[in-house]
Design a protein that fits this description.
The protein is mainly alpha-helical. The protein contains one helix and no strands. Helices cover about 40% and strands about 0% of the residues. About 0% of the residues are buried.
């Protein structure tokens, strides 16, 4: 029998996530959008 786990997120950033990491992730997302690239 195979088993699987499905993880579902609400898209919010955890409150204890370092602000520098959030800033970097948002910067990368902005660069991706500006380049017209799809999500990876």
């Amino acid at each position: 029998m195979r088993r699987a786990i499905v993880l579902v997120g609400h898209g919010g950033v955890p409150k204890d996530c370092p602000h520098e990491l959030v800033r970097k992730l948002k910067q990368l997302e902005a660069q991706r959008r500006a380049a017209g690239k799809p999500m990876s």
